[in-house]
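Bench notes, bay 3.
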Amino acid sequence: MSTRIQPQSIRTVGELFANAAIKDVETPIYPPKQSLLSRVHLYQGDITEIEVDAIVNAAKSTLQGGSGVDGAIHMAAGPALAKACRELYPGRHPCPTGDAKITPGFQLPSKHVIHTVGPRWSVSSDTETMASQLASCYRKSLQLAVDNNCKSIAFPLISTGIYGYPIGEAAHVALKETRIFLEGNNQLDHVVFVIFTGRDGDQKIYEKFIPYYFPLGPEDITESVELLSSVKGPVDE
């Protein structure tokens, strides 16, 4: 049996702060919200081993598998995944950039695979359009997860492989869209950002940017003090 990683065993943003893996920033983009720190995780490893309700595949427009994460997911899921994808888009009708579709996970530990087609980076293309398409990948994937009663989802860093999207810019989009979505939806208990094994530079970028979108902040410090007081009684002056 293949390795299965439970999302509860992956460090949350709150735990990253507690372990000093990430540090709070003076000017976060979003205000602190303590409840979000336990719902967002960061993991370096194999996305095909994570036992979540849905993993997201950075797919080609044909949804027929390719290299990198896409190829790894198809290999781990088995040939039934490609067949299910063909049934979604019979003939030569590709999945539009920024769209997302869902299939079963088949032989994967995850129940579902959400296939989303990210933009190909090009210096000659409109950067705003590409950013909008990438943002759509995250929004539609998160919404599909909720629509299919998922409680947990794992994302690769979409479009940053052979599609060449700058990793720092892609991480900003991923974190922003996740923060906005979680603010308005309580169904997802776990959102895991997965970094491909060996890409330590990607992990450092996430660790740098996470506090801007999911800051620790005064609210969390206050709540921690209140929780400690309720457990141990009044604090001595």
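Next record in the batch:
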Amino acid sequence: MAGAEELLERMLQEVFNEPDPQRRAAAIADVFTDDVVFTDDGRTARGREDLAATVTGLLAQGPGLVFTPAGPFRGVGDLGMRPWRLGPPGAEPVLGGLDVAQVADGRIARLWTVLDA
């Protein structure tokens, strides 16, 4: 069963960095529970379909930008955390934040994204 560290890495690369909607949907099905809840500063998405639509909208706001890990994974119990940066490949990031994931039965059940100030 996948742990939080592996799931956060897959989420970043296979979901938030995946431009193809079909491959992204397949990764969402593998990484997230059916009833996942994703919350960031501006929205809460409930369920895989709502999450997929939210990610599609986020990717449309910054075409060509990529998410990269910006620090080590940290975790305790069923929670995992990892900072990230968003920017053009090889250039200064335009945004950063921290993802906090709660894992249940080998999938992310809750995901919070806290943006840097």
